[in-house]
Give the backbone structure.
Amino acid sequence: MLYGFISISRRKPTWYQLKHCILRNFGGLPEEIVNPVDIFSRNLAHLVITNAEKTEFDPECSSTGMIQACLQGSSQSESETRYLLLLTENYGALTILQQKIFSMDNAEVVFGSSFPSDQEYTQVCRNINQIKVCMETGTTVILLNLENLYESLYDALNQYYIEFCGERFISCFGLGTHRVKCRVHKDFRLIVVAEKHVVYEKFPIPLINRLEKHFLSMNTMLTGEQIKLTDELTEWAKKFSAGKTPPRIGYRKIERKIGDAFIYYHDDTCSAVIHHICEKNKFSEQEIYPRKEQITTNSRIFAASEVEELCEFLPLRRENVTVLTLQQFHTEQQFSRKIKLCADRPTIV
């Protein structure tokens, strides 16, 4: 990668070029344990000026800039890049990919659900075939929650190709002993999105080493005003979640968290909401204030017997409340279809 910069600029590498290469090669490490940029800057202080002005040959060193360089290539370098592993605290990074980094017109998301029927061998084969089609057509594929098939991608991640008649092939792609040759389009890119703790605790070291790693969170994508709005929304969510509920005999008082009031709440939820509103509706930060609305949902441990109490407390009409349990679904498709039917159902007023 460093050679790619030098081959274009024909000059001694600058600190920004070195920093870009360091982060692209040694990113994804916990900074509280090791900071590769600091280590290199200390050892190269006598060779390069770390506080020099940025030049036209210098690449972008922000998270977004490095990810774009990995996906689309860099105009300052001719080198080929590895496929990408995005480490997040949650799956909020997928929203960033859709809204900020590149157009999703030529991208496919493959999500591995935990529903029983989606864990069967036939579904795993379908996922493998979907990735194979993306390889051959040059479609960017984003993989989430597919730990059961990452091992099948090792040969593709190695990026050791057999070239024939101007086309690139990998010799071993598939599942188990069922493997075939597969053509790899030159525009094909692969992105693995995974939670940070899952990568550190469960991902095999050979898999991690094959991918270019970067941290990504919604907070790094917001402006100053958007961060302020995010703080206000987070504070409101805390107050709402801590709101008093009707006293119930035999129940001890417990401290409620935001996740008890909002399904699948995580640290990036509020920032994702603000970012989505600003990007999709083209609102300025000042225009969001008069458009604030209260949207509520139920706890993940909500029981059907509490429906009447919920309707009375919010208040809501009983006909507008639907109680679902994950156990009643066998595939993600069934779950998504039911949610869509509930969302499309007219509200009774």
About this structure: DSSP finds 15 helices and eight strands in the chain. The CA atoms of residues 114 and 332 lie 8 Å apart. The first strand starts at residue 84 and ends at 88.
